[in-house]
Amino acid sequence: VHYLLLSAPWSVLCYYAEELQLRLPLQALPNQASNWSARVLGRLGIRNVMAEEVPNLPLDHYTCQFKVNKLQWFLGSDKQDTFFSTTQRHQILYEILATTQYGRSKEREVGVDWLLSENVFSAAFPLHDGPFKLPSEESAPSSLNQRQILFQYWANWRKWYKYQPLDHIRKYFGEKVAFYFTWLGFYTGWLLPAAVVGTLVFIAGIFLMFDDVPAQEVCESKEQYRMCPLCKSCPYWQLSSICETFKAGRLFDHGGTIFFSMFMSLWAVMFLEYWKRMNASLAHRWDCSDFEDIEERPRPQFTATAPMTIINPITGTEEPYFPKRSRHHRILAGSMVVIMMIAIVVMFVVSVILYRVVVAILLASSGYFRFVASASRIASITGSVVNLFFILILSKIYISLAHFLTKWEMHRTQTKYEDAFIFKVFVFQFVNFYSSPFYIAFFKGKFVGYPGNYVNFLGVRSEECSPGGCLIELAQELLIIMVGKQMINNTQEVVIPKLKCWWQKHRFDSSKKAAKERESEKAPWEKNYQLLVFEGLFDEYLEMVMQFGFITIFVAACPLAPLFALLNNWVEIRLDAQKLVCDYRRPVAERAQGIGIWFYILEVIAHLAVISNAFLIAFTSDFLPRTYYKHIYDSSLRGYVNFSLAHAPWDFVQHNNTACRYRAFRDPDGNFSSTYWQLLAIRLGFIIAFEHVVFFIARLIELLVPDIPESVEIKVKRERYLAKEALAENKVGF
């Protein structure tokens, strides 16, 4: 393996800094990083254990776009070695490598990425600042390199409760990586109140479970309520046999659920509003407020393959161009592929439903008492596990397909390319992950008919909820998918990078002995080459956004979801940090204005969560039927179990010579009773009231919380004034 170490002379750096519209400092300021929790604790006079002094804290600056003919007005322009930061040098070198033609122009042989894809070069990467391990435990903090500082104060498990050194992350990895970790830390901090309230609601459910009158009636009913079979070959069963399951259902289905659903809906809105403010503050501090609108250049891959050029109406410069009409045709064709893949997901969901029905029938007719008694529960749990594996396999296949389609669509900038790719994958993953929970929450057990007149689906009787109800099934499904996926992902993130690193070193070193002899002698580029390729932050963002959906869309069914998310994210931050600092080659620093299209996806999820929770409480939970019974019949809920069960129609009883009950509000002929229609009106009224109240409060919060803090607006005006003064001096070059 042969290595080429590239650097750029001062004249080249200056030329490309102006070409790339890099922003450089005019005036230094003290670092103005602040944290809302630090401010709150300071006002309360409580010592902040999360704060820590990190060495070599970068200064803040007033900045403006670099101009070579105004060089003397920029801070530090007399020191050529340090004027441009390491990440800016990396950006300039990558721009040169990515846009330089190396072959025939007709064949579009342009850029280092093409050379890498053709295996002319095996890798191209910026070097890390040095080793991440400390030379000794007593090393002076000021003597540490940037990588060692990040390892010691960020990618260290002992720092799990400390603030992340965001300015150091930005200085070393660039704005795109820094924005991801800022958002992840901000989201994890906001999960803390949600987890506390959710845990309190769950604990309240434990106390209510023991004092619940309907649960006591079920447990004490013995053979009072003989229930109709749950499937064609299933036996009759006693309601008292589901005593424990019925009690467990009260953990998730009680009055606190309403409060928590409303709390989480407003929590999601406030979280996004305050993130907007945080994003605006950081975008200004990190000099990327106008990046997407003005500064972002075409992707090198787009430049290499675009068939024509056009004048940019904003910058006035000539740029590569791909006709919009052709792009729209390609996007339409790609959309058809996405729809086809979604149809495949729906087919898999239907197959899981059929699997549950078939397994329940086989277990119920097996003759083994334990299997017969738990047939529905076993089918439901195994169905959730099968569904999780389907989800993970289909995800891997589709992401590769989405990469190909997005490249084919020829998007001009990296931001637009990533937004198109993210949107495709999210739509697919949304259906992939949430289709089964949506089915259990809103469709399962709702269209089954009644004894003697059951509804069939593909020749099989429609699936009923398990004896404990659909809400506890939904909670079980969420925990298996959400917690199971988190455990699998975290295991992969720990084990796979370590195995890959070991394999890389094993490939490059001919023997263990040689490896030991050469380890200390290896040049930095050799050590860096043995690290893994950084493949972007898409998977990390997707994992967190899907988690956000689980803790908001279905939170009425599982108040513990925010707690599991919080615990996972504490681990996730340090895992991702360790991978970047220790296991991956240093990525080329990329600029960004925020978290991109992910923010708009989060907004859609937050709105969908309000509607979902309203329908969940109205149609899946027992809250409204219980409230109705309390006000109309008995405030103590005595007799509620009998009230909620219908008698099997007379012709069914005659045909089977056995009377039985089933869960529904129907009369003895199988028609919906007046109670059903009254409850339907109450349910629809509740949905309308819940949505209007939550959306009204959400709009009020949006109006009261400005998107850009006033302090940031003042700083922007001050910076523009300084830039105008500096660049207008002597009117040179204008």
Automatic annotation (TrEMBL):
Its main location: membrane. The keyword Ligase does not apply. Keywords: Cell membrane, Glycoprotein, Membrane, Transmembrane, Transmembrane helix. Residues 169-719 form the Anoctamin transmembrane domain. Pfam families: Anoct_dimer, Anoctamin. Residues 1-166 form the Anoctamin dimerisation domain. InterPro entries: Anoct_dimer, Anoctamin, Anoctamin_TM. This is Anoctamin. The chain crosses the membrane at residues 177-210, 256-275, 331-358, 378-399, 420-442, 544-567, 595-619, 676-698. It comes from the Eukaryota. It is a multi-pass membrane protein. It is found in: Cell membrane; Membrane. One of its GO terms (molecular function) is protein dimerization activity. GO terms for cellular component: plasma membrane.
